[in-house]
Structure to design on (349 residues):
């Protein structure tokens, strides 16, 4: 049974979550004048056929990984759509992880000044986070995600069956975002995640569907209030400023994003306790136990031990200064007050 979450942005769209729902792509895209599929070389052999789209649909396969979020690849994809003479009523289907979703979203927002696109996320990170909320981007030599738009998809089909083939480190990366969302959502979400932790590690489809639905519902609620991240949406950056600093020091790609975020959440809790922002001291212990149950590093020390790294605090602060969410030279943090309540724009210093 598929679950459904409505994201009430403008335009509003449905996120369907469940096992085997990739095949609904045909029905979801049937009203468009033409369909193209963007995917990567790892995902194409596994799931392209499962979409059940007509053989004449243009299929564009790009190299797997972050390097495809570039202007060079974007131009090639746009050119392929143009050569197919797709018109403004056509639809682009994104089949893959967050890289494909971000690239497809930007392509769809630029081609003929905007066509529809449907997200079919196949990583846990993309199912719980990247496919919802309408942020699109490519990278610039100066940094990640520096060129992008806001473009909401027409629909999202999150098929949990695709997660069976996900490499372990990619799966763990998604779990970091699941942990983050439970802390943002509040005590009930934390309890539910505590119960589901063993099922998630076993990639049980019911536990996965439940937790993906919880993450999508929370994100849908936040982005509907604040589609362009002017206020409340900033809470989604919990653990991210520390996490980006860690990723930067280790060298991008060495530590999966969500794992750096998990350690970043540990640092955010520690800092919130130190400066007196945290009003629920038990949350530190609870999140550490939950991180352990999800096999995520609950602190910087655990991450250092896991990756045989040593990260000096001064170096971490220095690399956090480069985070694009900062304003000027000041480091802006999201810190927990208690489960379900965050303090935004706390300046580190
Ligand atoms: N738009 C947003 O709101 C948002 C939010 C978070 C992250 N992001 C972006 O998402 C990207 C990271 O996404 P990601 O972690 O999904 O990485 P990814 O898209 O690079 O996918 C990770 C790897 O898994 C492979 N893969 C994907 N699905 C698979 C499957 N089912 N089975 C086997 N292999 C599979 C891919 O080929 C790739 O090698 C980053 O570029 C980040 O900036 C965007």
């Amino acid at each position: 049974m598929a679950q459904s979450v409505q994201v009430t942005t403008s335009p509003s769209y449905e996120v369907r979550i469940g096992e085997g729902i990739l095949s609904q792509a045909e029905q979801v895209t049937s009203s468009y004048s033409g369909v193209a599929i963007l995917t990567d070389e790892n995902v194409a052999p596994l799931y392209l056929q499962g979409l059940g789209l007509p053989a004449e649909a243009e299929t564009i396969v790009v190299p797997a990984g972050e390097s495809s979020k570039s202007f060079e690849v974007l131009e090639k994809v746009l050119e392929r759509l143009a050569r197919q003479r797709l018109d403004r009523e056509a639809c682009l289907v994104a089949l893959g992880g967050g890289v494909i979703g971000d690239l497809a979203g930007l392509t769809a927002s630029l081609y003929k000044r905007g066509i529809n696109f449907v997200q079919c996320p196949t990583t846990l990170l993309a199912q719980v986070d990247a496919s919802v909320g309408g942020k699109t981007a490519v990278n610039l030599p100066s940094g990640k995600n520096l060129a992008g738009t806001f473009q909401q998809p027409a629909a999202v089909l999150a098929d949990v069956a695709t997660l069976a083939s996900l490499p372990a480190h990619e799966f763990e990366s998604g779990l970091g975002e699941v942990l983050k969302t439970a802390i943002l959502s509040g005590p009930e979400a934390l309890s539910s995640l505590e119960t589901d932790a063993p099922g998630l590690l076993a990639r049980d489809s019911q536990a996965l569907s439940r937790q993906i639905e919880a993450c999508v519902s929370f994100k849908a609620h936040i982005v509907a209030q604040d589609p362009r991240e002017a206020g409340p949406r900033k809470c989604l950056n919990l653990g991210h400023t520390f996490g980006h600093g860690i990723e930067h020091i280790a060298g991008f790609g060495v530590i999966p994003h969500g794992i750096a975020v998990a350690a970043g959440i540990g640092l955010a809790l520690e800092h919130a306790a130190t400066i007196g922002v945290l009003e629920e001291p038990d949350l530190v212990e609870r999140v550490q136990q939950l991180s352990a149950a999800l096999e995520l590093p609950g602190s910087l020390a655990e991450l250092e031990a896991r990756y045989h790294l040593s990260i000096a605090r001064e170096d971490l602060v220095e690399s956090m200064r480069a985070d694009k969410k900062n304003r000027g030279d000041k480091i802006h943090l999201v810190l927990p007050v208690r489960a379900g309540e965050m303090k935004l724009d706390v300046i580190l210093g």
